[in-house]
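Weekly sync notes, structure subgroup
Attendees: PM, AL, DS (notes)

Item 1: joint prediction request from the bench team. They want all three components modeled as one assembly rather than separately. Inputs as received:
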Amino acid sequence: MTVLRSFWLWVGALAVVAVLVVVTTPSVATSQARITHLETLVRCPECRDLSVAESDETSAIAVRHEIADDVHRGESDNKILTSLEAAYGTSILLSPPTSGLGVLLWAGPVAVLVLCVGIGVRLARRRR
Amino acid sequence: MTLIWIGRVALVVALGALVGGVVDQAVALRHRRAGHALWFALGALVGILGAVAAMEVALVTHNFSLAYVAANNATFTPLLYSITGMWSALEGSLLLWSLLLTLVTLFVIYYYRREASDPVVAWASAVLFGVGAFFTYLLVVPASPFVHNPAHVLQGAGPNALLQNNPLVAVHPPLLYAGFVGFTVPFAFAIAMLVTGRVQDRWQLEQRRWTVLAWGALSLGIVLGAWWSYQVLGWGGFWGWDPVENAALLPWLTATAYIHSVIVQDRRGLFRVWNLSLAIATFSLTVLGTFFTRSGVLQSVHAFSSSTLGPLLIGFFFVCVGAGAGLLAWRGDRLRSAVGVDHPLSREGLFVANNVLFVGFAIVVLLGTVFPLLYQAVNGAQVTVGTPYFASIAAPLSVVLLALMAVAPLVSWRSADAGVLWGRLRTSAWFALALVVALVAFGVRRPTVLVAYFLAAGAAGAALRTLRGVLVAAHRRGRWTSALRAPSTGGMVVHLGIVILALGIVTSTSYTTRAEVTLAHGQSTVVSGQYVSFAGFHEVKDALETSTELVVSVGGDQLRPAVTTYNGRNGQTVGTPAIDSNLLRDVYVTFDAVGGNGATSGAQVQNGLPAGSVVLGVTVEPLLAWLWIGGLVVGLGSALSFLRRRYNEEAA
Amino acid sequence: MRRTITVASLVVLALCVALTVFLGTRRPVGDATTVQSPLLGKFAPSVEGTELDGGHFDLRDDRGDIVVVDFWASWCGPCVAEAPNLSSFAWRERHDKVKVIGVVFDDSVSAARAFQTHYGSLYPSIVDPNGDIANSYGVTSPPTTFIVDGQGRVAATLLGPASTAQLVGAVNRVRR
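Output from the run, pasted for the record:
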């Protein structure tokens, strides 16, 4: 078998496995999964950088109950986070806001990515 | 009182020797001859050793006439924690830093003593003396550890509780600081090369060896720090993207880029600018790190108390970066390589990608760390940048880096022949696929985990293939030991260590389960497949601490999670977790609360529960031990890399 | 290649100037920050309860004195940093019509007593069993300090560990 053919055979096998994984994975966003995810985004009020998912302080447990109640009541993720922000201040969220100055934080990695691609392109062009 | 005077005088002597060293080198450069660097370095070491000895004697004999000892030591502090007390607070930590720096300075000057008249060596020595003088100045004036305590105190405050309940306090700071201090050397030589204009390869390539040593120490230091946090802080985690943790990570990232980038300079003489910049950046980031840790500007559980050192440290950071950037701008013309990168997907091209990714990540981490300050200055409100942000950047980056590790060691230099590459990759590729299939059959479905294992298998495959090649070549030569010193051995062993570490991180963070269980005396339960039972209380009361331990069985092993109150003002009440660790999983047990209204040594009381029952936090983390094993392998690999032959020594 | 290096170096240099100036002008977090509490200028809510040592305290009894009300907890690190400052401040000002009273925030009595025994306290602290006092003052995280003037109004609020200098400064401002 030629080198090229053995490569495509492998790619094919990889594609099959990938499809299998995607198809057989239950992708239901259960309430519990949502709650757990939200808990990782909210800081425990008394801690410096632990999320309420990780901390066992009384205030962290209280916030976990609040999140669970809100999720079961059918509130959207965004609304839950905003109401927590209103109660405890912006610093309660572990991930900074994406609007306003927060754009800088997310623009940074994008800029680095662009730089990476740019350098790669420049190297390829210089070769010719 | 005598100890205070001995300490102060010793530090002044050290400062004098270091400043004298700078002057001596300046004069020597002027007259184009060798100076007396060795004597000045020895003088500085004698001074610092005197100060260290004075401090340690004071700590071990619990001499409370020193304010530092009164604040960090008590009569009942055990010997180990008295000794480590030297670096458990700000002033003493600077003393440790200066000690390591003077040792490194002396070693480097001794190593190059026969070339002391070479301007590069002279400039590098001057820079080393200058940096040492700065840190020693901090010890003499703004942050002196030898301050007299006017109150006649019979008992000290004792060390911080978290710094006296785990022996890792004796290992983590010295290793970490050894790493930081080690990066002063490539910085000094980079400045020397730029100033003298001698940017030819020899000096740069020698630096690789020292940088690998410093990098190894820093890597071990960071891993041990994570292990220490894990054992002590009580939430089962090991990394919080805390400002001080980030401060240690930043120089590590640029140092990793540097180590890889110098390989290209060794092989093909390229990347000179990158390497000089990375050497300067790494040391500057070290200084920036000390700023974050000691200025009190960012809150952190790892930070020292705030002090007036902030402006001085940030000023010094600027001097270092400014000098470096300025020199690079000035000497830009001499750095032109004769050749360039031939193809973006050749080995050199992938190393460029590697450089950009590591430096880019460092910039992103710095941005995230400084962002709360920026936000507060602009909007006046507090904001937290925590794990979700950093993890969302680190995760895709780790994927790309693992992919690079799987491919780059097998890619040719100068060309990008797909056929040849596939021929080398084939075995790893099929093995990786088979692993994924096995995992899927085992029930693993999370895409992050599957991708991580897939790429990690590829990376391990590439490393093992390279190592096999080395062993075959050594066998042909008839000398097995030559395999140990082959150029790629150390690096591939480090890669294997990183693979183990990465798998440990991915598996434990994806599949950790936490539960709170309430158990009465003699009761047992099963948490995530682990059998946990509570057998009773055990009180410990001695001069050092009052502790309520729980006797808990996990699997067949006995654990003693506790809540301990240390005596002395600094000794708060802390929870001491207990960990049952094996290769497959860690069970992390904390004493969260006790029922009834019994008096305990500070554990949280829950009145709703019957007296004598306890609430345990049980966290089960699969493959967590792989992190520490991986770290150990990384350390081993860097030791091997330190010993390796240079590329063109291959003939022998 | 020469120009790229020069340009890039100067860009990095400029960024580092900005970073240095910015970081060099930040204040350390170690000290307490003065905050605008909604209670400023209003009559201080009631502070009444049983002291950890057994006595009884009522803010109304101290009308005429300046009272420093400090919410603390034994699990709170900055409270440890603050404790000696408050004690020495209380001791120094005890004859100058200044009183210091601590309020235990979200903590068990045994832990609070242990804290007092270990760090020594030259001022009394009262328990706040259901957190009513803390709620009425809007306290969410200790240590939080309120300065109540001679007429019983809240004059200043400090969030975080108060240094001796800040306490002295705040009380002097109230005296004027």
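Discussion: Chain C has a mean pLDDT of 84.
Action: AL to compare against the crosslinking data before next sync.
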